[in-house]
Structure to design on (166 residues):
């Protein structure tokens, strides 16, 4: 069984999902791929992981860099998992590019990785903000692609005091 809870954030209503122990999803309402990894059967329930996630989000939206004291378990292919793990390493307030991530993965694996493939995996990130896909921009500094919307990406980057707008 999967469980859900809502959180009213400065970027809109958010829906979170859990397997009962881990956070498995965090989406902004009406975003692209909304509820993409949430199964058909779920129920609203108050869980410790939701309480901890809401506390983390409240601190984040106050401009803090909160410590994650809960487990996440996003659903996706091995390639997507690898990209999402990379995103977790991008420091608060910093940015990187799709191309840089592709180059780093090429160095690690010895296999060609395109920036477009990286972008596709990032676009399907089911745990927005916590897995910070908003910190990835185009190689020319432009704010390209964000499932939640470019306006929300700009808001999050500004919140982290990173002016990356072109």
């Amino acid at each position: 069984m999967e469980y859900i809870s809502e959180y009213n954030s400065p970027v809109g209503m958010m829906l979170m999902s859990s397997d009962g122990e881990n956070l498995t999803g965090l989406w902004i309402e009406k975003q692209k791929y909304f509820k993409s990894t949430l199964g058909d059967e779920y129920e609203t329930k108050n869980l410790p992981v939701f309480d901890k996630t809401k506390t983390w989000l409240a601190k984040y939206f106050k401009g803090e860099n909160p410590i994650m004291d809960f487990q996440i378990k996003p659903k996706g292919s091995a390639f997507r998992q690898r990209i999402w793990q990379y995103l977790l390493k991008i420091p608060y307030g910093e940015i990187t590019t799709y191309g840089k991530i592709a180059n780093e993965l090429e160095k690690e694996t010895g296999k060609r990785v395109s920036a477009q493939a990286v972008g596709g995996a990032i676009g399907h990130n089911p745990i927005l903000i916590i897995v910070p896909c908003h910190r990835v921009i185009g190689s020319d500094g432009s704010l390209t692609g964000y499932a939640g919307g470019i306006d929300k990406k700009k808001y999050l980057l500004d919140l982290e005091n990173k002016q990356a707008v072109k």
Remarks:
- The chain is about 35% helix and 15% strand.
- The beta strands are 2-9, 12-18, 23-28, 42-44, 96-97, 136-137.
- The chain has a mean pLDDT of 92.
